[in-house]
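[RESIDUES AND BACKBONE]
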Amino acid sequence: MKLLLDTHIALWAAEGAPQLSATAAALIEYPENTLYVSAASIWEIAIKYRKGNLPVHPRDARSAFRLAGFAELPISSDHVEGVAALPDFPDHADPFDRVMVAQALHEGMPLVSADPKVWRYHATLMLRA
């Protein structure tokens, strides 16, 4: 199965962090699964790094993702158009999450996320980590 990992899940998985749930760890470790990280995650990491909110340089994150065997999913125009079709939630307007949800829907792959706000977009495609 193809799985899209959200930013936190990808970072936690790449560094073997204890925050990763047993469910997410099992999905990530299952050899038949193909794991993807969105280019939006690299963008999010870059912004948070520049603001001092994340100590990981985006170059190092990309390298760690590659070493972990994650494929990178570029952002296409179809993905961006898909953002317009998503429901609006007053308490959640995170552009990175919205792009990743649109990517997951367009590509037909579950998005693995630990964020309950993300789960609301499309429950059948969200995997709670």
